[in-house]
Amino acid sequence: MKHLAAVTFALILLIGCKGEEKASATLETSPSGIEYTRLYMPGAEDVAIQIAWPTDWALRDDVNQAVPYIGTDLILAGGAEGYPPGEVVETFADLKAQGSMWVTADHLHGKLIAPKENLDKAIKIAAAHLAKPTMDQAWFDRIQQGFAANMAEAKSQPANLGYDALRWAILGDRPLRRALSIDPPEMITTATRADVLAWHQQTVVRNGAKVVIAGEISGDAAGNAADGLFSGLPYGVAVATTASAADVSPKRILLHVPEAKTSTLVFIGPLPPTREGNEFEDVLLAAALGGDDKSVLFDAVRTGLRASYGFGAGLDGYSRNLRLLVLSGEVETDKLTQAETIVRKAYSEFIAAPEMGDLAVRKQPVKVTGEQTATLPEAASFSALMAILDGEEPDLALTLPLLIDKVTDASVKSRAASAFPKAEKLIVLAVSPDGSALPGACVITTPAEAANCR
User: Fold this and answer.
1) In 354-397, which residue ranges form alpha helices assigned H by DSSP?
2) Which is it for the CA torsion 25, 29, 31, 34, positive or negative?
3) Which residue of 70, 126, 335, 432 has the fewest C-beta atoms within 10 A of its own C-beta?
4) What is the pLDDT of residues 68-123, one digit of tens each?
5) 208 in Cβ contact with 41 (< 8 Å)
6) Is 349 in contact with 289 (CB distance < 8 Å)?
């Protein structure tokens, strides 16, 4: 999706008929010096604010990787100066506002959405929780215990053990793997409120964040909103984006889980980061490959194995630098080897000559979503933020249909051939109750053993 940047900081997109109010994307600076992108969206009832604070916590050996997950819930739920713990949920509901925070390997994300008439009140509440959270101990205990219970349940599922094994195979015993798998699980129970306070102090700072404000909002109002949210935050140390070491070399692994009721088969391989472009080609290729019951892999497995189940394809990522193609599905244990052969063959033939059908028809739902994004502050602000993090211009959020129109049969075919991993280069992992179901595979009984498979 690379395109030439405008030579001016004002990035304007015209929508609609001549004479109508027009949507625009503008890079601005608040009175106190906060840089942000304003998406002016005429007629929008809500204002959405998206913030991404850079963080290297997931790549550090000297910290507890469970802490950010607890912290994102505790900041808003644990109270703030002037706001009792647990009150923000009810108050936001009264204001018809929404606030949430979440973490990825690269960023702490914050989102605030409110009707225009309630924006100032919502910002005051959010700012108090960002700058001076109480982080009530009782709420810390509640969140920690719930998190531990949820993770214990997740890790009891054989398929999830398989994805843990894949992270061991690709990342080894590095901080990023521990952050993504939340493993060892004792990280959760050994985390302390003091750990969360330290994480918050290092991460939620005034400088370095990317900010997008979307809605029918003026420059003055947007600048005041940015200042309101960041006013109580301290300056922090700039965090540089770094990549975690990864081994994506091909290997075949079988995780033997005797209690599994069926087998799961997963193929995984690297894709270029979204900042390198052609993301829409990737989305369309993944959909044709395994997006529904008419897709290539679904049909190949159903037909080749005479099975009642299907096989899917999707795009995932461990970080913004480590993006992945994932093919997966449940398989009858006695047909595991046959399924591997069928999926490999279907995938190999597909990337050599993608079966896209009528591309215009396939593009239509993606284009409709793009058109809707340009009218919805929440969707547009997030899309603009993702573009900014990729080094793109923020007006991309308002021009998605035009970019989708540029996707052609030729660009799709070229992308499949140049960017999608070859079938023989994929990592294959099976989770099965039969340890001999995938002959020649590296057989393991715990996810951690996958780090030694070659």
Assistant:
1) 359-373, 377-389
2) positive
3) 335
4) 999 999 999 999 989 999 999 999 999 999 999 999 999 999 999 999 999 999 99
5) no
6) no
